[in-house]
């Protein structure tokens, strides 16, 4: 990589590094609560249009590449990100306030995702090829030759998230899965980490040049809300990926729905990730102190990363039992001992403080514990808090089921299974739902807890904690509205690629005119469904 | 089947046959242009709510059934439809004006679809099971056990189509795929064929009783628009299937988007199904008169079923060549010789006449040919018509690219490849796009015609005619907006089941608490993705 420093503040309209012709702004360092010296420039609507125009041209060329070439591009992005070395890590730490260890881990997650999609492309079966060969002699009518596979939607706009400056941002999961699917990507950078964004964007452009990708396959834009909405409204944009607030996600969804041609918006927006604890789930077994372990684990999950995860457990439903007191005491002890830490930006920090404050003053809500150490800097550091309330109160006030983004959780103590079931039934859609219980008590209960939680969430955990989202084939990081805007999808794991494709059927095509995945000889060697049977054979 | 005649005019709220408490109406026989004596009753919003309430209860019970039991239910529906015998055929002929042969064929398609989904369920791999077993020793962090499969969305509302009183109606593809997916179905019957609808509904209820399905797994409602919209707005309804007009589909989409929890609407709305003819595609080869054959085939496709198919070829783009005259002459001859025939209902008939009239009076639009025989009944019978125009005129008037539902087509004669490409580029999304050409001329052309058509349609044909939609694994009956409201899906073929499911991940579950599809022993014997490899082995 060359001249990184010189390009730290650049936009990329396709391969071209340019200054925005809109407003300029400075990055903010949350740990020092100070603006940084580098000046960033927002692009104008006209510049954003140029990026879309280049993406349209790139789409046609990119679609003609062998899947292996797309894979090489993704691998090259991972290598270029690694080649940025400490400069990327330091910048991300500076702009996010997150610790170096966390950012280093997140870089590994980012490059791992890119390489996972590269190997998915090389294996190739993800295109869900289906072949029904012609039956010319069928009665009463012959059947034509029909072959179907998944093809890319077209240019995709991705909105980076503030809480994962690498893994859910410029070169994150949305970008990796859209590029893997065959779609050009235009990233609208998150203003919380503009320098990190530019560096990651530069890595992608460098990888595109080195692997001969068409100009326009990727653009990185710093932009205000007006330009962001214009991008979503642009007729040549065919899908949107977003991770962030509910308000932000819904605003983009509205723009997308009101287009003459509506397009899919994959917005991962908000969740409180309920944790349900039945007495058996914290009963001591064979001398192990399960109750203490679960309570300590919960407190650790609530405070992890200053609570700034979409999967943070914000609600705990505890079925009252003789263990309640001891459970709560351990949680309280751990929360009191937790250290305040810098939050991602001033807006998140003040929203967190305000959110906790609004709840704690309600009659019937009690503060179980707060971090005892005062914050070094009241303007930036979040202090953990766990509150308690009762099921009737919870049910009577929908404010209590809203997400407070940060290291807090509300424990709802339920007196009966019916109360607990009512509470769960009242919840909106969630990314995760966790159940602590024994198989025996599940069998004996009159409520089907697993099914109840499954209707509410994209991932159901038996024990464990929802923070920590594995990147793998079996992950669902999604869930019913408003956890996401489209419950049929995941934004993490190999399934994320399915968001950016649609099926196309080719009828009666000469073999040579078919895409490789559908040709008789199966030149890609992929699994295909031929008349209902999965096979790698030719047909 | 018992007491069919007595129940011809019934609604079914779950298993219970009831009269609607709303307005009453009579069926209409298009062939005789007369109302029939049977009186049907629309349900009220309250009755529709009861159906949804029953569906919610049934959803929980239905989800616990072995996939084989759902398959038995679908097979039983097919058997009950056949058991209705001639009564169903005669009623459908009476209410649709379609010939007996066509309706008999459509019944075969309907029962075939149901049995296809039954065998898909028995094979079982469609749930896309993915397993990443735990890696307790992985560094730096252990990996939990993660297992993911597709689960049903919940109660689905289906709107029957007027043009397929069996195959896209009460027991049609939407109902079959939603029931197969595990979703209860509430059908809003099309008022064009209420008796046919009640008979099919009765067959489904009979099958549900015989196979022990929960009350509420299926409801059939006659209803007005207000009740229809209330169904789509009901918080417990989780998806909508629709086949019909663009106006109708967009109205439902709007209701679904404005819900507090938006839900997917799968509306198959409109298409003009462009047919592109390059000179090579109609050049005579080895003594065969290709030109005449293609022209005659096209005329047959335009007039098939009085043009009342979503895949009717409404636009033909002909690249001008020495063959133009002879091609058009054959088309004209066939169209002139075509017989007028009864259309589905008075609304469709008058919209067709009006649509053709609006186009034919435009300067630069010429009538190439019309059916020469006068209609026996001007109020009901549609007469075929083919018109011609030029590319510049086509490009200057978007009215010319709108669907006219019926046996007409507009031939746009293009002077250059660039003109032709501009015309195609201007089109909205389509169900199908057809290309007549030789592989040689495609290679030599400066335009990538296949890719251009693929961006516009869900199914691309090389030669052949778009009417005739095979029910199979490889079919895509879908396409970019406004052909459908969701280009990522198909409403015909086994892929239709994917519209009514979402992925759910189970983390760290005891084996016995997992769904069968995800248990270690693979008791269903399905294909599963285990750490990226497809296998039927246990894990």
From TrEMBL, chains A, B:
One annotated GO molecular function: oxidoreductase activity, acting on the aldehyde or oxo group of donors, NAD or NADP as acceptor
Organism: Spirosoma taeanense
InterPro entries tied to this protein: Ald_DH/histidinol_DH, Ald_DH_C, Ald_DH_N, Aldehyde_DH_dom, Aldehyde_DH_Superfamily, ALDH_KGSADH
Superkingdom of origin: Bacteria
Keyword Oxidoreductase: yes
Domain Aldehyde dehydrogenase: 23-439
Keywords: Oxidoreductase
SUPFAM superfamilies with a match to the protein in the record: ALDH-like
Pfam family, one: Aldedh
Protein name: Aldehyde dehydrogenase (NADP(+))
């Amino acid at each position: 990589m060359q001249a990184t420093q010189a390009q730290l503040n650049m936009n990329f309209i396709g391969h071209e590094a340019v200054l925005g012709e809109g407003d300029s702004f400075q990055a903010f360092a949350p740990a020092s609560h100070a603006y940084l010296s580098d000046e960033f420039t927002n692009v104008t609507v006209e510049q954003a249009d140029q990026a879309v125009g280049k993406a349209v041209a790139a789409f046609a060329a990119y679609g003609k590449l062998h899947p292996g070439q797309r894979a090489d591009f993704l691998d090259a992005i991972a290598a270029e990100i690694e080649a940025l070395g400490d400069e990327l890590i330091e910048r991300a730490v500076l702009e996010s306030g997150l610790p170096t260890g966390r950012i280093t881990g997140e870089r590994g997650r980012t490059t791992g995702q890119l390489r996972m999609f590269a190997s998915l492309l090389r294996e190739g079966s993800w295109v869900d090829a289906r072949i029904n060969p012609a039956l010319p002699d069928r009665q009463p009518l012959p059947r034509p030759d029909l072959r179907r596979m998944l093809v890319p939607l077209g240019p995709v706009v991705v909105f980076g998230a503030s809480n994962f400056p690498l893994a859910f941002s410029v070169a994150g999961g949305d970008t990796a899965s859209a590029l893997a699917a065959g779609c050009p990507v235009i990233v609208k950078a998150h203003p919380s980490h503009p320098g990190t964004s530019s560096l990651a964007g530069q890595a992608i452009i460098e990888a595109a040049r080195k692997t001969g990708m068409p100009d326009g396959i990727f653009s990185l834009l710093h932009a205000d809300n007006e330009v962001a909405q214009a991008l979503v409204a642009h007729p040549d944009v065919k899908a949107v990926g977003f991770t962030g607030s509910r308000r932000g996600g819904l605003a983009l969804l509205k723009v997308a729905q009101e287009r003459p041609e509506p397009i899919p918006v994959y917005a991962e927006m908000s969740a409180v990730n309920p944790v349900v604890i039945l007495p058996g789930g914290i009963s001591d077994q064979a001398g192990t102190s399960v109750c203490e372990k679960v309570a300590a684990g919960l407190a650790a999950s609530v405070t992890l990363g200053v609570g700034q995860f979409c999967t943070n457990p914000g609600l705990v439903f505890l079925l009252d039992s003789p263990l309640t007191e001891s459970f709560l005491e351990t949680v309280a002890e751990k929360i009191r001992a937790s250290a305040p830490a810098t939050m991602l930006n001033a807006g998140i920090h003040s929203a967190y403080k305000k959110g906790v404050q609004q709840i704690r003053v309600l009659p019937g809500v009690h503060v179980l514990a707060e971090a005892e150490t005062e914050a070094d800097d009241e303007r930036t550091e979040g202090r953990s808090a766990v509150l308690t309330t009762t099921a009737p109160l919870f049910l009577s006030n929908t404010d209590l089921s809203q997400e407070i983004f940060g290291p807090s959780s509300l424990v709802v103590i339920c007196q009966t299974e019916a109360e607990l079931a009512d509470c769960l039934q009242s919840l909106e859609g969630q990314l995760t739902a966790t159940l602590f219980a024994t198989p025996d008590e599940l069998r004996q209960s009159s409520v089907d807890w697993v099914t109840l939680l499954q209707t509410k969430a994209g991932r159901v955990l038996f024990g464990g904690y929802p923070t920590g989202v594995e990147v793998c084939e079996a992950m669902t990081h999604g869930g019913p509205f408003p956890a996401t805007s489209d419950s049929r999808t995941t934004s993490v794991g190999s399934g994320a690629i399915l968001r950016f494709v649609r099926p196309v059927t080719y009828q009666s095509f000469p073999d040579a005119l078919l895409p490789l995945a559908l040709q008789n000889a199966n030149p890609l060697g992929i699994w295909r469904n031929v008349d209902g049977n999965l096979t790698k054979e030719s047909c």
